[in-house]
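We treat protein structure as text, and this decision shapes the records that our systems exchange. The tokens are whole numbers drawn from a learned vocabulary of local backbone shapes. Below, we set out a record of this kind in full and without editing:
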Amino acid sequence: MEVGETEHTLEENARLKAIAYATGNQFLVIADDSGLEVDALGGGPGSLSARYGGKGASDKEKITLLLSRLQGVPWEKRSARFRCVIAIALSSRLVGLCEGECSGVIAFEPKGDQGFGYDPVFYLPELDKTMAELSLEEKNRVSHRGKAAQKALQFLEYLWVETRKPA
């Protein structure tokens, strides 16, 4: 079964997928949605990040489209963030949402060859690197997915402890 990301927000898509996969099951299901939000584009591409430029568009084509839409936008107005929302569901019921965010700036041109998606143009001022220039260890420490995953782990540990307490 494949669940389409048909909703308008990252939260809604993560929730939709988690509940769909959890329905009829007796185990926890974890699903996520993530995207790039660019302030100069009104928060876009957002939940459409994976489909930006049309179905089947390559990462390079998505980056080219993004940069073309930001043409003429000065550095100080190219602020952006990667966001990830993880939804946790059990038996068709949402039990938790965990979010992670990584703020940066959209660079004028791609740099670096690590990672995927928009990583080559997502510049992290505090590290003076794009996401595509980071090692996997560095990326996991600062990325939106890494932060959301840490929160989800803490939430799952909390659930584990709470369900083991005597009634």
